[in-house]
Structure formats: C-alpha cells, structure tokens
Automatic annotation (TrEMBL):
Phylogenetic placement of the source organism: Bacteria, Bacillati, Bacillota, Clostridia, Eubacteriales
Native source species: Thermincola ferriacetica
Catalytic site positions: C34, C37
Designated name of the protein: Thioredoxin
Site residues (Contributes to redox potential value), renumbered to this chain: G35, P36
Site (Deprotonates C-terminal active site Cys): D28
Length: 109
C-alpha cells in the first residue's frame, strides 16, 4: 500500500530512518482497515514523488508496529507526523486534501 518512493517504516528501522536522520521526514501512521487511511494513501504517494530529494516520506502500519505508534501517542489514524532533525515538529490528524498537506510541508523544506 505504498508507492516506490515511500519508505516502509517499522519498529525495527524507525530509529535509523527517522530519529537519527537530520533532514525532514513525513511519517504516515495507518492501518489497512482504516477508510481515511486508504483515501490519503494516493496523496502520500504523490507527495513522495513531488518532495523526492527534499524529504523522506514513510508509512508505519500501526497494527504491525505498535511500539512506534505508542511511543508517539498515535491515538487516531491517519496521523501524519513531521520530523526534522529526528524530532517531531508537526502533527496532522485525519484526512487532509493534498493542497493542505503541501502548505504544511512547505514550512519545513
């Protein structure tokens, strides 16, 4: 459920790919049973292509990676977290149109 440019993030690789990365990372916390998650998935794929080279974009399946979801207090999905220099700098909960997401992401690139 992710395009070629979208990283698959797990409990095992989250630290290396996100927390220890100096640049900007958008992380989509999702689940296969979540309707709004399925609606936002193609938008995330498009953003990954548009922001390629400017930021990493990855997805965490909350059913398979409960530790990471719990660590960041993800209570509703989809939840999009923006990290910069390994620290959470923004949080967007629920479906958002692509234009709204781009406005938020442009603050960090």
């Amino acid at each position: 459920m992710a395009g070629d440019k979208v990283l698959t993030l797990t409990d095992a690789n989250f630290g290396e790919q996100v927390e220890n990365y100096e640049g900007v990372v958008l992380v989509d916390f999702w689940a296969s049973w979540c309707g709004p998650c399925r609606m936002i998935a193609p938008v995330i794929d498009e953003l990954a292509v548009e922001y390629d080279g400017k930021m990493k974009i990855g997805k965490v399946n909350v059913d398979e990676n409960r530790a990471t979801a719990a660590k960041y207090g993800v209570m509703s999905i989809p939840t999009l977290l923006v990290f910069k220099g390994g620290k959470e700098v923004d949080r967007l909960v629920g479906f958002r149109p692509k234009e709204d997401l781009k406005k938020e992401l442009d603050k960090y690139v």
